[in-house]
Amino acid sequence: MIVTMNLIFSFDSILSALAITDVFFVLAAAIFVLVVVDLLQP
Predict the structure, then answer these.
(1) pLDDT at residue 14 greater than cutoff 70
(2) Cβ–Cβ < 8 Å for 8, 37
(3) Which structural domain, as residue segments, surrounds residue 28?
């Protein structure tokens, strides 16, 4: 769970730094990856 939170903050920092037009797409992809990782954990 700690790793997942670190990933969320990392993505948030990256998105804040980039601030590009593809933010919504990147955010959606990041959320999808985090959900998959969370589901794979026992």
Answers:
(1) yes
(2) no
(3) 2-40
